[in-house]
Amino acid sequence: MPDLHFEPDQRLWLLHTPSTSYAVRLDDDDNVRHLHWGAPLTPAQARELAARTPPAGSSFDTVGGPEELAVEGGARFGPAGLRVRFADGSRGVEWRYAGHDTDAGHLRIHLDDRHYPLRVTLHYRVHDDSDVIERWTTVENRGEKITVQRADSAAWTLPHRADYRMSHLVGAWNSEFRLRRTEVPIAETVLTSRRGMTSHQANPWLALDDGTADEEHGEVWSTALAWSGSWRITLHRDPAGRATWTGGHGHDGLAWSLEPGETLRTPVFAGLYTGGGFGAASRAWHAYVSRHVLPRPEETRPVLYNSWEATGFDVDEAGQTALAARAARLGAELFVVDDGWFGARVSDRAGLGDWTPNPDRFPHGLRPLAAEVHRLGMLFGLWVEPEMVNPDSDLYREHPDWVLHMAHRGRTEMRNQLVLNLARPDTREWAYAWLDRLVAENDIDFLKWDANRPFTEAGWPGHEDPDRLWLDHTRAVYQIMDRLRAAHPGLRIEACSGGGGRADLGIIARTDQVWTSDNTDPVDRIGIQHGFGQLFPARVMGAWVTDSPNVATARRTPLRFRFHVAMAGALGLGGDLTTWSEDELTEAAELVAAYKEIRPVVQLGTAHRLTGDGRLTGVGYAHEDQFVVLAWCPERPFGHDPAPLRLTGIEAGADYLDQDTGVVHSGAVLLGSGLPLALPEGEHASALIRLRKV
């Protein structure tokens, strides 16, 4: 069982995970102060730390050290994670300790305001098989109306180091999850999304180290927020050298009311420490996601085919049936009809919101196509976008008030769309009802749930607390997904938001995979997948093989290279199979079969990022006695083949058999001198190597 230890004399709590410790204490004014997050501590060592009083920098600073949830009030000048205003106009909080309780690895520290009817509980949860610490906060109104201006989930504090470096993910549509590492300035650095969704531009994952960590060595502290709407994380490095960050749902400028008797629960803000570098941090996150976040962690993801790049909006029963036959021939296990099957949806200008099959394209509905897909031995999937509507739709003409809008303001259209306000109970129930009916009536096994548009004019005329929609819309998405999965246990869902615009621990708690990016160019995908894998395991990373030249970049790449890059995740096919030659179809079927052989290793194994000469990179996956290497070299100077690729994650004292060549390699040699790669000549070279420990 997880280990939680309390020292009543010191008013000290010590939490243990398998490899780390976390300690907090109450000061004389009942503020919960941070003590330690890192390598294991004994209770005696924790008591020694608690006896220390952090010095003030000057007479202008307070004494006491960083707080577990920084609040407004008193001599506090950093970013506040909790900001409230009471009915009489007072602001700020003064704490009175109200006790604690624990069960099954869950610690709750209760704090009351000394005057106002406010109860705040700090939550900590640890697991016996993970070093991830889950934290969140509940804010309870026990009396008069309270205005909440900020309610973060948690604040995190690092031990003092001479320097700090920040790793985070940045991007844009078609260029998501680009990893950036930079020095932390002595300032407040704000990472945020104000878009109503996680966003392509930033992701609520953050890692700090002392500037010396690499893939296999060094201390790394990282956190991830389980929230799929707008969010904010504020990293503060003060002139004394201390680094803290606070984060939670919602962005700056929002405020909402907490009515008497109402409790606000913030999303989980999970944290992880490791002394084994960025690679160990990623593997720990992957294991945590697999064991404690994903709804069906034991399942391997099927090889899917998606029709979008083949047909665009030109979708009909005959064309989809022909594509399904070719997809089945290649070994696809799931056939997904993308946009264009419903209403007047012959372009992106109309029909969104009218979720019934287009009678001209599907005169007998979707059931005949679903039945044929099932006859071919595949699951049947469908693209939907439940949160959006075209103004040119029957739904909007009937319910123009159902969209986000403000009185006396225009309604900004993006992608010819507006956003439905799922915070409204009637809109939310309508969305669930048609999804439930669609799945049931058409034997649907899989939904690709898209959300292509950020929030604008996010108002709710007539509602006394309109800012709540920023939270309640996301909660409604969660609720609808949860209800659908409960009503249809066989249903699987892919999260999509114009590609990777909604990827976080909150959405993957109720979906099975994420559509990583609309950019399927394999050269670009190497970088995108590298960033995505900092937090997420391979089994949730949707990765397609599409046509050459690529529809987004016009780059030409060999089919083998496209497959080897996509094999690093949940493999999918997305090209126009009607234009592929017989040779391409045969090669593709062979590569799909090869993927199915390595799929348990890729999707269920532990991942080790590998770096070689020049632009040679790769990933190794270890599972039971198998070790699979996927290596990619987009370009190289003429006559300069890369040196053997050094492996990690294997045993020095073991031997490994190459299952394709029969060559036996020493683990020590693979670690020290690398694995020789039989790369094809020229650019866009790649290799798949299957090793077995002997």
Automatic annotation (TrEMBL):
Residue numbers annotated as active site: 450 (nucleophile), 518 (proton donor)
GO MF annotation list: alpha-galactosidase activity
InterPro entries, alphabetized: Aldolase_TIM (IPR013785), Alpga-gal_N_sf (IPR038417), Alpha-glycosidase_related (IPR050985), GH (IPR017853), Glyco_hydro_36 (IPR002252), Glyco_hydro_36_C (IPR031705), Glyco_hydro_36_N (IPR031704)
Domain spans labelled Glycosyl hydrolase family 36 C-terminal: 623-691
Chain residues that bind substrate: 173, 338-339, 415, 448-452, 496, 518
Domain Glycosyl hydrolase family 36 N-terminal: 31-259
Source superkingdom: Bacteria
Catalysis performed (reactions): Hydrolysis of terminal, non-reducing alpha-D-galactose residues in alpha-D-galactosides, including galactose oligosaccharides, galactomannans and galactolipids
Gene Ontology BP term (one): carbohydrate catabolic process
Short name of any one Pfam family annotated for the protein: Melibiase
Keyword set includes Hydrolase: yes
Enzyme nomenclature, EC number: 3.2.1.22
EC category name: hydrolase
Stated family: Belongs to the glycosyl hydrolase.
Entry protein name: Alpha-galactosidase
Species per Swiss-Prot/TrEMBL record: Paractinoplanes ferrugineus
Name of the gene: galA_3
